[in-house]
Design goal:
about 0% strand; single chain; globular; 5 helices; disordered N terminus
């Protein structure tokens, strides 16, 4: 197996491990909220996001990522190998996300529809998760 195929297999394994971690957090959140379905629109503290906004944010982020992947996969010849600059950018992003640095929520998230119930949020989650699995299963061998 060529080295880029090995890297591709490892990347898929890592990606699925990450999805599994996110899924566990999602299940835990929904389990906590199942006894208080009305609480999905109540922030846990002043100035904090509601559980519905968190779920909407994850959904919105995954949808954006999927659109980007689909766009890139339309032109596989333009996909390049990771460079050191990409590694640095992802490390900076992870550091910012884990820090206390505050950023405003995108308007799409800040105005999460109040009519979204747990069932709708759960269906959105299942749909996007299925799309992610199909997309990653169909990655070209060199990605």
């Amino acid at each position: 197996m060529p080295s880029n195929a090995i890297t591709s297999a490892r990347n898929k394994e890592n990606l699925f491990r990450l999805f599994d971690r996110i899924e566990k957090h999602h299940v835990a959140l929904m389990h906590m909220l199942q006894h208080k379905p009305d609480s999905i629109h109540i922030p846990v503290a002043a100035g904090k996001w509601t559980p519905a906004q968190i779920v909407e944010h994850v959904h919105f982020s995954f949808m954006g990522s999927l659109r980007y992947l689909h766009k890139k996969l339309q032109y596989p010849d333009t996909i390049t190998q990771n460079r050191p600059a990409a590694w640095i950018r992802i490390r900076v992003l992870l550091w910012i996300l884990q820090s206390d640095i505050k950023t405003k929520a995108p308007k799409v998230i800040a105005q999460a529809p109040a009519d979204r119930d747990m069932e709708t949020l759960e269906q959105q989650w299942r749909d996007i998760r299925a799309q992610i699995i199909v997309t990653t299963d169909n990655f070209p061998k060199a990605c």
